Amino acid sequence: MGTRNFEWNWKCKSTFEQPPIHVYKLEQTLSHPLKQINTTSKLETVSHNEKLSFIDPLSANFENADPLSLMAAQEDWDDLDLNVEPVKAPKRGLEMSDNPWIEQRTAILNKFTTTQKLSISLQQHQERGSSSRDIASNIGLKNKLEQLDDFEELTLRQLEQLSQAEYVETVNSFGKVLVTAWNHDFRVKALKVAIQCAKLLVDTSVVQFYPSKFVLITDVLDMFGNLVYERLLAKAEYYPSGSKIMSPLPENFTPDMVPESAKETCRNWFYKIASIRELIPRLYVEAAVLKSYTFLTNSELSDCVNRLTLMTRGIGDPLVAVYTRCYLCRIGQSVFKAGPELIRQNLKDFLLLYEQLFSPSVHHQLSTQKVDLASYLGTYVPALDWMFQGIANSDRHDFLDELFKLCMEKRNKGLLLNSILSTFKPEYIAQKAEVLVQQISSCFGESFPLYTLLKMMGERLRGHTTSNSNYIKREIWKLVSKLENEGDYLSCVQAWIPFIIAHSSTSELNIVLGDIIDRIGSSTKFSCAILQDIVITVASNFPDMDQLFTMDKFLPLLDVIRSESSRAMACQRILEIFCKSRTAESTADPVTTDALTFIAKVLHDSVNALSVDDEKRQYGQLISQLIMKIDFGDFEQQLRFYVEARATFMNLDAVIVTLVHCVNRIAVETGKKVKSHHTKRTAAFVHACAAFSYITIPSVTSEITRLRLYLVTAQIALFNQSLGQADACIASALAILPQLPLSVEIDGKMCQIQPYLSEFVKNLLSTLIIVPDCFEQGMLYLTRGLVNMLQQCVEITGIAAITRLYLDVIRMLSVAARPEYPYHVRKVDSNDILYGSDPKFLTEINSMSSILLEEILNNLQTLGEQKDLEEQAAISFELFQYVIEIVNLESEGMATLAYQLWLLSHKHKCLDKKMAMRLLDSLKLKLPMYPANSAFSLLVSKLKI
Amino acid sequence: MSTSIDIRVKKANKIYHEGDSITGTIVIQTPGEIKHEGITLTMEGLVELQLSPRNVGIFEAFYNSVKPVQICHVVVEISGPGKIPSGKTDIPFEVPLLPRGNKTIYETYHGVFVYIQYTLKCDLKRGFLAKGLMKMAEFIVEYKPSNCTKAVPKKVDFVITPESLEGPRDLGTIPRFKISGFIDSVVCCITKPFTGQIKIEHTEIPIKSIELQLVRVETCGCAEGYAKDVTEIQSIQIGEGNVATNLYIPIYMIFPRLFTCPTLITTNFKVEFEINVVVVFENDHLVSENFPIVLTRA
């Protein structure tokens, strides 16, 4: 294509038609268009079937295959590899009814660990007793004794200096030996192993590990019990009445259905167990196989458990005894659904002997082991908790009261109180709160750590009301204040603060907060996390933020948090609470706003070079929300606030952006209020607003954001008739254009700048239509400036994009040439009125258009040279459409140009044929509107695909 | 696989009373057909008395000076001479359990010096050259509870103090203690547990263990005099470690089968039982209280 000059000539000079303005009927809608469709169907099902509880649509689909819950379910089996054995899922085993035990079990294993060395001693004590049987040897027994000898050789060595892991491994290996022996029909050997295991429970040499040891060993014993039971069950096939085929026993069999041979085997087991010499192994092993009693009798089971309970009295060591009781109760519950009576009996016995825990012999034992009494008592907690739980979960309130009374009568009752507090229902605790508080205070100075009790009670009372709350509050606070260790003190405060908040006035709470500050203000050794939690709890328990800040101790409390990050975290949470609590409301209270600004400032100041982007983003969002919530109603005060805020939150771009928007908003509000008839005062105010934005925007880092803000500010300035400000903003925006980076980060992703630039330019162009020219600057100087700047942007966006933007500028110019513009700003005279379609102005536009056209054609050529043929075709086709649409084809050369553009766009077959066809069709439809020999008709007739 | 004989009695627990007929089957398993000269089943009850070397001297003990006494002896011919086909052959049998002559049937008892045992012996005679097959099986004889006198509970209280101790002692060196308790009955039914309670009222030295010791007292009398021997059957711990004071601890023991029988007093021998309550102190000193007991079947 040659470098010919084309005269640009607008065709719609005279015959401009007002484009129809489509006013869409607005309808209010209740549903969000982007909301998932299936939600509605979900709602229907819920209404049909009202019993159905809410189904979380997110999790509903995954319910069957949630890998985490599957894993959690699996966990019970996985955490002990012992369970990888044949009795994995016993048909009628022990596991069915002791789910609460499983939880307890895991908790114990996690809590009671030791670094001390453990030892396993496996002497064969009971050989003495069975010596007479050797004499009375018969042939069958001999074999069995031989088996035993093998086992003794295996384990007679003393295992000492084991680490905890080795110990666990050893006990597990006992389990494996037991199962292997059992599977090889060495039942007596299996029994021996079980006895050996149970015997380990006699040893309390490492007290801290005892609960875990108990768990490990009872696992083995349970396994043994199941093996015995399963085997008897397999043996006990019977003839159902009227049938001649042997079949296994039904689920709920009665002893008279059991054949004699199975009964005999079962009896043999019990005779064997009854002759175990040592008390503790006998108790445990008998308890473990207790379930098998169901083959012999139904009625004696409970008698049997009661007998075992009584026999437990013979155990001298209180720790061993309490865990034995725990095991008995567990077995009782799982085997024959023993009611709370069994636990009650055991607990009563335990309480009878409670003084034993503090006896000199225990003291002696502890001093040799170098364990303090508090942690010794701690080892009782799981067993006691479990038994207390059994009582607390039953409906027997008389037992509960009895137990409570018994516990209260004891001295050193800290341990008992702890179990009461942690297991009884919160309602019960709330009801007895007064007594409990008195009892707790009587524990002051005793061995069981007081703070544990206070903390536990506070946690349990959370959300419950008590009758005499003032008294309780006072007493508790007295006790808490007495605590010496700051960590203990804080954890108690943490537990009680919800209660205190719920039951005290703001001023009282203020005093409490003051106490906390006095107490810990000076020290540095405490957990900031707890303090942070306290602060957050206080904040979240206040329905009204204004009230919160009337307490003059609240903000100082925040200051007490030494750790930067904790403090920032607390501030963040408070702001979140504030933002969430009053989504619709806004506040104007100066105290609140000051306090919140202070909090926000803490948050803002915690941002440093090391802060993660995401953190900054979160803080920015929060502070922005806060700023938007503060509304004084008075615009000038509001602006002052924004100015201050800008000074305070300099480092967070998000906040700066929000501030600009806020100021723009009040500028618009002002303009709306005066209905664009600005008085001197309002005019000054909107100028000030524009000035605020104008000087604030440069501190934003992101160029594209700056561009947008400038444009918005310019539009608003225009709306407020601040023409100078609008011009300045646009000029500043234009100055940014050449500095734009190649790509920007939007929502964490790197994007090409080009689409954002085009968007901005288009937006700017539509604004430029109505921006009136400044007389000092010459016609359309801003538009010209834009074109100049765009020329410098070629490097950034590439030639094709710039060419397209040129097309947009041409488009804008076509509108600017109209005698009347499609839209105006009220009270602002745009160029159509200023120039009144002055020929000079039109010539200017035409010359600009010609220059642009030339530029475009040059670019098209460059594109061709760069072999970017697709772009070339697309742009030339677009230009062709423009020309056909907006140019007066009659003017010289234009028709030729159009035709050449058509040819160019088809030259390399890169154009979408369908689109071209459609355009051609529409052009042909228009033919009748033009005379036959017009340039248009001639052109259209020439066009071919 | 060679030929084997097995005796299977019908009752799973193998317990029979006097006058019962013992029923069961003789199971012969053979890979090939065998010829035999007859199968007989012998039921025999024997009382074996052994003299303790302590009492009668090694020489007499070695020669087992007391001959076993046959209480009962019944021979039944299961089958006359004939053939047993290959495979498994069950032959039912029935033998009455009756005493021989004027003898009385005693309960089965496996002791040290007194041994009462009942056996079934099956003999398969195989001509002159081939070796016969033989199988023995023990069965258990108990008195019929309905024929026995009921145990009349006889409660015994006891108190153990340094003063109550027998034997040589020096009260100055013995720690102060008081242990009290009771035995529910010293006349016990053999199938019921031995029960009672014990309480440590006070003690100067911590206790290490409390045990129940069951001992048998066997007396063999003969022309030359008699020998009495006391041996332990079993020991059961009922208290472990320093048990709490002033709290009743249950005494509970199940009598082991075979090793105990109802107290037996005959002209030739006696089988009696005693229980010792043994309290071991931490310094390994021990005190014990002895309770002769009478065992009955009902």
TrEMBL record, chain A:
<dbReference type="GO" id="GO:0032456">
    <property type="term" value="P:endocytic recycling"/>
</dbReference>
<keyword id="KW-0967">Endosome</keyword>
<dbReference type="GO" id="GO:0015031">
    <property type="term" value="P:protein transport"/>
</dbReference>
<dbReference type="GO" id="GO:0005768">
    <property type="term" value="C:endosome"/>
</dbReference>
<keyword id="KW-0653">Protein transport</keyword>
<comment type="similarity">
    <text>Belongs to the VPS35L family.</text>
</comment>
<dbReference type="InterPro" id="IPR029705">
    <property type="entry name" value="VPS35L"/>
</dbReference>
<keyword id="KW-0813">Transport</keyword>
<protein>
    <recommendedName>
        <fullName>VPS35 endosomal protein sorting factor-like</fullName>
    </recommendedName>
</protein>
From TrEMBL, chain B:
<comment type="subunit">
    <text>Component of the commander complex that is essential for endosomal recycling of transmembrane cargos; the commander complex is composed of the CCC subcomplex and the retriever subcomplex. Component of the heterotrimeric retriever complex consisting of VPS26C, VPS29 and VPS35L; within the complex interacts with VPS35L. Interacts with SNX17 (via C-terminus); the interaction is direct and associates SNX17 with the retriever complex. Interacts with SNX31; the interaction is direct.</text>
</comment>
<dbReference type="Pfam" id="PF03643">
    <property type="entry name" value="Vps26"/>
</dbReference>
<keyword id="KW-0967">Endosome</keyword>
<dbReference type="GO" id="GO:0006886">
    <property type="term" value="P:intracellular protein transport"/>
</dbReference>
<dbReference type="InterPro" id="IPR014752">
    <property type="entry name" value="Arrestin-like_C"/>
</dbReference>
<comment type="function">
    <text>Component of the commander complex that is essential for endosomal recycling of transmembrane cargos; the commander complex is composed of the CCC subcomplex and the retriever subcomplex. Component of the retriever complex, which is a heterotrimeric complex related to retromer cargo-selective complex (CSC) and essential for retromer-independent retrieval and recycling of numerous cargos such as integrin alpha-5/beta-1 (ITGA5:ITGB1). The recruitment of the retriever complex to the endosomal membrane involves CCC and WASH complexes.</text>
</comment>
<dbReference type="GO" id="GO:0005768">
    <property type="term" value="C:endosome"/>
</dbReference>
<dbReference type="InterPro" id="IPR028934">
    <property type="entry name" value="Vps26-related"/>
</dbReference>
<dbReference type="InterPro" id="IPR014756">
    <property type="entry name" value="Ig_E-set"/>
</dbReference>
<comment type="similarity">
    <text>Belongs to the VPS26 family.</text>
</comment>
<protein>
    <recommendedName>
        <fullName>Vacuolar protein sorting-associated protein 26C</fullName>
    </recommendedName>
</protein>
